[in-house]
Amino acid sequence: MLQTYKRYYQFLWKYKWQMSLFTVFLVALSITESVYPYFFKLFVDAIPLKDPVLLLTILLSYVGIRLLKLAFDLATYFSGDSALLATARDIRVAVFKKIQDLDFAYHLTKSTGSMISAIKRGDLAVFNFFHMVNINLVRALISFTVLLVLFAQLKLEIAGLMLCSMILNSIFAYFLIKRNVAARVKFNDSEDEVSDVIVDNLINFETVKFFAKERAEYTRLGKTFVPWMKALWGYANSFRAIDIVIGVTGNASLLAVLYFGLQYLLRGQISTGEYIMILGFVDSFYGRFFDLVFQMRDVAKNNADLQSYFNVFNSDTLVKDPQKPVEVETVEGEIVFDNVNFSYPEGKGDAIKDLTFKIEPGESVALVGRSGAGKTTITKLLMRFYDPVSGAILIDGIDIRTMTKSNLRSFMGIVPQEPVLFNESIAYNIGYGAGTTDITEIAYAAKMANLDEFIKDLPEGYDTKVGERGVRLSGGQKQRLAIARMILSNPDIIIFDEATSQLDSQSEKLIQDAFWKVSKNKTTLIIAHRLSSITKADRIIVMDNGQIAEMGTHKALLAKEGLYAKFWKLQTVG
Ligand SMILES: Nc1ncnc2c1ncn2[C@@H]1O[C@H](COP(=O)(O)OP(=O)(O)OP(=O)(O)O)[C@@H](O)[C@H]1O
Ligand SMILES: [Mg+2]
Description:
By secondary structure, this protein is an alpha/beta fold. It has 19 helices and 10 strands.
């Protein structure tokens, strides 16, 4: 809880000037508005004197004070908002940045639906929290202090009584609000579950339609509403509990103070004006106190929301950039895996075992093997999405852990197994890696990847949007687009993961030609199931169960009559 506040104020107090002004105006505002009832006393006590000038002066001063309060009010909100709006932006950007910087592994475990709903709630809480804690809470506390001081001068007993009742009420409020927060956290969790199901459904619309599972999806959503209703009911009732307890004890203390005041009045120990003042003060005091308690519930709710918003800051990156990274400009492209062992954090068993191999600069090496053998894992380790459990990976003799991740990845161009695209134009997606919008360059890359014919036929050509994740393109088109994107980023090391698996024989041949052209003199790692596409590779590594089973040229491996020869026979006969 404290950590949440600390973080919040760290963001807020970056705007020192605005916040300092805000604080000054807020204090001035609270003091001015607290003294209103004092004028009632002056006025009532002055009535018997029948002095029109005196009465008018009191009245005008009262109006003057009210106008002053209005001015402070405006100044408070102006200065406060100027800090608040910028802070809300800063927090959102910081959360976004943190999410960007988190590991590949984090993104595999996160759930988009929960995350979006947490971010939305958190965003709102940033504003609410400011108005409740920074404005209303401070305002109420200051007016309490002013009232207590004024009462203490009038009758110490009344001040003591008010203080006691405030402490008593605060203790009750503390426990009730604590319960309320717990209920809120529970409700948030079930709210996130609902949102998860909705987002998951939106992402998987294709699968739902394939199997005509619309009804099952309603049921799936309906099920998440069972705990949701229960949590919301509990949350709503925790409010009622606060209303009842504070309503009873609060009003009882109000009555007590007024009763004692009346005793003093009847015994002639205070004037009528002073009693009117007590009435005014007590009324605004308890009014504000009730407000405060009710707002504290919201503060609690917003606190819970802020906490889950800030939660992302507590996630730690597993794959860290080094303190003093070596800065590498370009690489020759020598890759060494030195006794690498690796297992996925949530996986069972080792995905990679004692892997040792060396790829010379400019060499093309194919990785083949059964599904799940660890081929894609090798590329993930090479790009430092994960660090090996033991052993080292070196590029040009430099341990990749000594470079920054962005430095390392800038040398590599990857065509992933399942390319995912931005819901933007084709040109945008092709130019993404290189960060270019130059249409000549983009068109060149598209031509190299054999994608230009397809683009020419589109009504909007390069400006055609590809749909979410690229749903409006075929599998083969997406892969060719990924190839064009890679070509444009002009990498030193090329990684193809099943790049040609979804292409028909004719486009495969064109792609192959383009690919061998691009990869000339560049270190290339090709993962392929279709062995005919990699016979040209300088060397073939046959993976089995996270280990190297065989290694050699196509010819040598065929002659060996091992695993590779077996795969080859299966594919060529088929
Ligand atoms: N994120 C992950 N968490 C846990 N286990 C994983 C993860 N990714 C892959 N694995 C497991 O690691 C092993 C190697 O997976 P990998 O993706 O490297 O296989 P592959 O050789 O590329 O297979 P394919 O040819 O089917 O693409 C598999 O057993 C897989 O289930
Ligand atoms: Mg794979």
